Amino acid sequence: MKKELIKKPTGTLDILPEDCIKRRHLENELINFFNNYNYKEIRTPTFEKTELFKRGIGDYTDVVSKEMYSFHNNEFTLKPEMTAPVIRAYLENSMYNLPGVVKLFYISNMYRHERPQAGRFREFSQFGAEAIGSSSYLIDAEMILLCIKILEHFGVGNVITKINTIGSPIERKDYLNELKKFLKDHIGSLTDTSKNRLEKNPLRILDTKDEKEIEILKSAPRLYDYLNDSTKKHFVNLLNLLDKLNIKYQVDYNLVRGFDYYTSTTFEIISNDLGSQNAIIGGGRYDNLVEELGGKSIPAIGFACGIERLLFLMEKNNYKFPSESIVNLFIVTFGDKAKDFALKTLIALRKRNIKCDTDFLDRSIKSQMKEANKIGSEFTIVIGDSEIDTNNALIKRMKDGKEFEISLNELEKINLDKFRN
Description:
Layout: H1 17-36, E1 40-41, E2 47-49, H2 50-57, H3 62-67, E3 70-71, E4 76-78, H4 83-92, E5 102-111, E6 123-132, H5 137-153, E7 159-165, H6 169-184, H7 192-200, H8 211-217, H9 229-244, E8 250-251, E9 263-271, E10 279-285, H10 289-292, E11 300-306, H11 307-316, E12 329-333, H12 336-351, E13 356-358, H13 365-374, E14 379-383, H14 385-390, E15 392-397, E16 403-407
Parallel strand pairs: 1-5, 7-8, 12-13, 12-14
Antiparallel strand pairs: 2-4, 3-4, 5-6, 6-11, 7-9, 9-10, 10-11, 14-15, 15-16
């Protein structure tokens, strides 16, 4: 009886060779990009103490309350985001002693137990950056500029940059009381999700996608009106600088992020090409998180971008990914002596960064030549017992079939350039 096929878990991806080429290109380009902005790479463990995310992200956020993969009696959690782990590493490794603003970037997998849908997976990849140590609106502008330039570099257009300021928890206290009063007057029109958020996390209701609630919120009190003068000044200075930099944006006073650690500046870049899950980049300030996780009061700002969503947009915009490097030489063999010779030769050629291969299936010469043609090998060389005995063989240029005689003694040191033209 044939055994049942075991399939990958729901909400995960098999990244096949042709897709790996695209991802590797994306990652290499990102590394160069971040290097130009003087950001240094950081890598953190795949799992962290569960308490890190509860304290950092917030108990009542969707991620912590229902989306985390926790195990070992709930002591550890597969990381659902990277900001809290980066700050944990920043504190644990005394990176606050480094000079200037500590600028870090990451490329990593994340895990969230949520309903899989277009552009949203249970295991997914993100890249992002964190700038720790500055409260200046200048670093806010650089962070937003960095996001926009990355998208431009990868040919992603038709995006909208939304920006807001949400102040500090102290500033939001009076506002949240007024927001609750307003929403309770419309309780019958709220979704079940918003009703659950009303007492524990009412700010998240501003992020609703429900059309009826969006209409109701147009009459709601505005958070900006409750912020202090210094917060407003920071925001105005940021907007003025973005104008000077010719960065187009929309102020969205209902833009809040899904984590409790956000303060002051929040921003999001959306693409209508992504459907309902249209955010490609999201970020903002989190000036209280370092202190919340046991450090001193140190301001910071960051962003994250989903790699799967970015790759989707790049493909939709016909981004020209590099193709896989072609095989330079395929050694066709027949006879045991030839096979042994071929393997020894491959070792020498690969040391010289020549991409080469041979047959491992004991196929006919005809079948081997078909494979060489199928994989697009530049050259082939047929080696059998007679070639071993005479120490000579013919190397064939596959694009036109032209053949050149060579000595097998020279094969390990061959210069393919002289046969290319």
